[in-house]
Amino acid sequence: MSIVSQPETTPAADAHIPERPRTLAEKVWDAHLVAKGENGEPDLIYIDLHLVHEVTSPQAFDGLRQAGRPVRRPDLTIATEDHNTPTIGIDRPIADLTSRTQIETLRRNAEEFGIRLHSLGDIEQGIVHVVGPQLGLTMPGITVVCGDSHTSTHGAFGAMAFGIGTSEVEHVLATQTLPLKPFKTMAITVEGELRPGVTAKDIILAVIAKIGTGGGQGYVLEYRGSAIRALSMEGRMTICNMSIEAGARAGMVAPDETTYTYVKGRPHAPEGEDWDAAVAYWNTLATDEGAAFDAEVFIDANELEPFVTWGTNPGQGVSLSQTVPDPSAFSDHNERAAAERALEYMDLEAGTPMKDIKVDAVFMGSCTNSRIEDLRAFASIVKGQKKADHVRVMVVPGSARVRIEAEAEGLDKVFTEFGAEWRFAGCSMCLGMNPDQLAPGERCASTSNRNFEGRQGKGGRTHLVSPLVAAATAIRGTLSSPWDLIEGAN
Amino acid sequence: MEKITTIEGVAVPFRRSNVDTDQIIPAVFLKRVTKTGFDDALFHAWRQDPDFILNRREYQGAKVLIAGPDFGTGSSREHAVWALRDFGFRAVISPRFADIFRGNSGKQGLLTGVVDEQTVERLWERIEAEPGMNATVDLVAQTVTVGDLTVPFEIDDYTRWRLLEGLDDIGLTLRDEARITEFETTRESWRPRTLPIR
Ligand code: SF4
């Protein structure tokens, strides 16, 4: 190599050229390194956006108060009320004392520490993971944390987003950074074309069924492949949202035109020169050719069918056309025991066709599936139909804005004429911290993300499904795919 | 967080092993919104018994808890440490701690020292001979002393250093504050800001 042929500028230019190909996750990580940890110590990572809600923040603020510390960057912090908020009668005082205390505490803390808060009744109120993207605060290449495991949702934009515990919430409030050890990376490649009626929710349920609820432990999952590229932002959020159910810290999708179109023009999206600079940078984020992942998984999108869970963890799922599995078919001893327990709790018999299972309730909502596109999907099936008599149907928008948008499109009419309850925004029956709960023994088809024992109310039984399956189920009263409706019509 | 060099106070011979975090603080107390004021919650079920050791007059105002093996197992709740601290404990000595509990303790300024089972037995016997006597936990020398009995305890160097310096996680990070500030000056203007509200 001749010295003469090396231009003077090379060293500076070199500083921007990675020595080795990197993944999307590594690029975002590297761009937020405040200090590199030495001798096995964690790196110090800068946090671009901190989302706060009423359940995991009170003690964090109390810790700051005790130590006499301020919030370092109120301008990178935003709070909403969501987990506890009622979805009817929102103008009345909250009946449950714990819920009320948590909400009142958040209001006091936001006031005292100068944090922007969107309270119940505010147009920007809603589930924290719906509000961030909606305001244009969630964008590619940033780090996002929140004291909630489903923070992984924001990874759909090509952000590094993960849930943290209360002491970490305090840490971020005080320092805007977190000491973290790098995550491993896993590529989840979904190639092919989804058949009509098969959605993002079915992809992620199939992924979790394949790798298991612990399969993603310690990893950031990067979803790639033609089927992911073809998804809307809402679909990508649904997938990233449930990364945590595979045990992963985060899920990510490289940003592309779909991402930029979604972000552009939102209240906090970059504008003018900032926008151009941002897009130029975002275009460099995709995983480099030849970058190595620590693990890889392949899913054939052409093969996928509408999916449903039969058990009490999100990995216990099958295609809707299949039957309740026989626990004795599991070779792994622990899985077999888990399946036996799950069937007992779910009151299901091995061999029963999934479609014969009758439900008492349908919940359309949660940070997994409560955005406008989800509501449109649900409405497209139930429009002009009547719900099955014995089924209670609840539709809960993810945010006050989604509610308004849906009403502007007349979706609320579609839902109420169908016989569904149309509620105000919040987490609602996703976790049953507010009065929206299942009664003991009740069975629910739910678009949420967790089917744990008692998650939607003590003794309640949850089947996780997509909005389309939820809609078809609400019509037929048994677990159903949208395909069944077409067959029924023939 | 206060710097710790020595802790001196009433020592409790806590003849129990496998004390899990549910026993240290039951789940019903997790609903609270503060990080302090958990003294009433500590060992809540056991304290209903008037003969429970912490209800005895000799042990009022105790600072050093000397427990059996496997202290702090079970759920990872940080409240367990808060409850011990709020009650007045500054050090727990045991032959074995659950990892997460020990990690949480180090971060919250509660000293956890490991001594072997025979030594714990000797400490118990010494204190029971003279209930209400003080123990001195010397973090610099890494010893526990009750009366004429002095024994060494183990603690990892990193946690020991943090306790000596009085550094919680945040304090530790803020030692790097200049680097955080410097990083912030390079933060591009397109990155999100929640304020002013747009
Ligand atoms: S909707 Fe459910 S999963 Fe999402 S933030 Fe709320 S409680 Fe958590």
TrEMBL record, chain A:
Keyword Isomerase annotated: no
Q: Which InterPro entries match?
A: 3-IsopropMal_deHydase_lsu, Acnase/IPM_dHydase_lsu_aba_1/3, Acoase/IPM_deHydtase_lsu_aba, Aconitase_4Fe-4S_BS, Aconitase_4Fe-4S_dom, IPM_dehydratase_rel_enz, IPMI_cat
The catalytic activity of this protein is classed by the Enzyme Commission as: 4.2.1.33
The UniProt entry's sequence similarity note says: Belongs to the aconitase/IPM isomerase family. LeuC type 1 subfamily.
Main function: Catalyzes the isomerization between 2-isopropylmalate and 3-isopropylmalate, via the formation of 2-isopropylmaleate.
> To which species is this protein native?
Homoserinibacter gongjuensis
Tagged with keyword Secreted: no
Q: What class of enzyme is it?
A: lyase
Q: Which cofactor does the UniProt annotation name?
A: [4Fe-4S] cluster
The pathway is:
Amino-acid biosynthesis; L-leucine biosynthesis; L-leucine from 3-methyl-2-oxobutanoate: step 2/4
Q: Which CDD domains match?
A: IPMI
Note how many cofactor molecules are bound and how.
Binds 1 [4Fe-4S] cluster per subunit.
User: Where do the Aconitase/3-isopropylmalate dehydratase large subunit alpha/beta/alpha domain residues begin and end?
Assistant: 26-477
Classification via NCBIfam families: leuC (TIGR00170), PRK05478.1 (NF004016), PRK12466.1 (NF009116)
Chain sites annotated for binding [4Fe-4S] cluster: 367, 427, 430
Quaternary structure and partners: Heterodimer of LeuC and LeuD.
Pfam families listed in its UniProt record: Aconitase
- Could you tell me what reaction this enzyme catalyses? (2R,3S)-3-isopropylmalate = (2S)-2-isopropylmalate
What gene name does this entry carry? leuC
Q: What's the protein here called?
A: 3-isopropylmalate dehydratase large subunit
Alphabetically list the UniProt keywords: 4Fe-4S, Amino-acid biosynthesis, Branched-chain amino acid biosynthesis, Iron, Iron-sulfur, Leucine biosynthesis, Lyase, Metal-binding
For this protein, the record's PROSITE patterns field holds: ACONITASE_2
From TrEMBL, chain B:
Q: What class of enzyme is it?
A: lyase
**Catalytic activity reported:** (2R,3S)-3-isopropylmalate = (2S)-2-isopropylmalate
Residue limits of the Aconitase A/isopropylmalate dehydratase small subunit swivel domain?
1-112
Q: Which CDD domains match?
A: IPMI_Swivel
Say if the entry is tagged with keyword tRNA-binding: no
Task: List UniProt keywords, sorted A-Z.
Answer: Amino-acid biosynthesis, Branched-chain amino acid biosynthesis, Leucine biosynthesis, Lyase
* Entry keyword annotation includes Glycosyltransferase: no
- What EC number(s) would the UniProt record show? 4.2.1.33
Role = Catalyzes the isomerization between 2-isopropylmalate and 3-isopropylmalate, via the formation of 2-isopropylmaleate.
Subunit structure, interactors included: Heterodimer of LeuC and LeuD.
Q: Which gene encodes it?
A: leuD
Q: Which Pfam families match?
A: Aconitase_C
Q: Which family does it belong to?
A: Belongs to the LeuD family. LeuD type 1 subfamily.
Its pathway is: Amino-acid biosynthesis; L-leucine biosynthesis; L-leucine from 3-methyl-2-oxobutanoate: step 2/4
Q: Which NCBIfam families match?
A: leuD, PRK01641.1
Q: What is the lineage of its organism?
A: Bacteria, Bacillati, Actinomycetota, Actinomycetes, Micrococcales
Which protein is depicted?
3-isopropylmalate dehydratase small subunit
